Amino acid sequence: MKSNRLEAFSDGVIAIIITIMVLEMKVPHGDTLEALGALLPVFVSYVLSFLYLGIYWNNHHHLLHTVKVVSGPILWANLHLLFWLSLVPFVTGWMGENHFAKTPVALYGLNLLMAAMAYYILQIQILKTHGKDSVLAKALGKDLKGKISPFLYVVGIGLAFVLPWAAGLLYLLVAIIWIIPDRRIEKAYLGSEG
After folding, report:
1. Which DSSP letter does residue 98 get?
2. 63: closest CA among 150, 135, 149?
3. Which domain holds residue 85?
4. CB 185 within 8 A of CB 134
5. CB of 64 within 8 A of CB of 7?
6. Which of the 8 DSSP states describes residue 99?
7. Are 78 and 122 in contact (CB under 8 A)?
8. The pTM is what?
């Protein structure tokens, strides 16, 4: 199978996840700013999760441009990633509805950690299928962002039980680190076509 079917399926799933998240935000009962203000934690958690899903969609798009042939392990690794991403609406809603309480913030971080690990596993499966001379292998290099992110998630999960707001800021920091798509893949892909 070529990667276009895998990418189209993944795009559809991510679009549905975002749609579910926005549908979880309920319209306030009242026409004042105070009524709207009660939804602020829900809105903040939505914005953070929307940012994460956008980052995953963007980087997943770049990643799949390195795939020439989709193997069974790549399919399963991709489904594994989509599983963790599909839980984002649940942990987002729980965290927002409970005003960034300790346990929901910790579970949110755990979900982010598991999605990051699933993305790493997907990269590994692509490397196994395409070899050490593949575009992805050339692009990854030291992968500092990929190594520091899980560490920051683990710190955030622990911090959530002491200072949940600080854990939320740490999750935001990781998102900011990843907001620019992985240019290494783009450069390696363009270089391989030259």
Report:
1. T
2. 135
3. 3-193
4. no
5. yes
6. T
7. yes
8. 0.91
What total number of domains does the chain contain?
1
The region that residue 81 occupies, defined by phi over 0 for left and psi between -120 and 50 for alpha, beta otherwise, is alpha
The pair of structure tokens assigned to 61 is 């798009």
pLDDT tens, 137-187?
A: 777 777 788 889 999 999 999 999 999 999 999 999 999 999 876 666 666
pLDDT digits (tens, 9 = 90+) for 36-81: 888 999 999 999 999 999 999 999 998 888 888 899 999 999 999 9
Rg, C-alpha atoms of the chain: 18
Q: Which residues, other chains included, contact 45 with Cβ-Cβ below 8 Å and sequence gap of 6+?
A: 92, 93, 95, 96, 100, 108
Cβ atoms < 10 Å from Cβ of 121: 16
Residue 41: burial class (beta carbons within 10 Å; 0-12, 13-18, 19+): middle
CB 170 within 8 Å of CB 162: no
Cα–Cα distance between 153 and 116 in angstroms, integer?
9
SS3 163: coil
Q: In whole angstroms, what is the distance from residue 180 CA to residue 115 CA?
A: 18
Q: Would you say 52 and 175 are in contact if contact means Cβ atoms under 8 Å apart?
A: yes
In angstroms, the CA 167 to CA 159 distance is 5
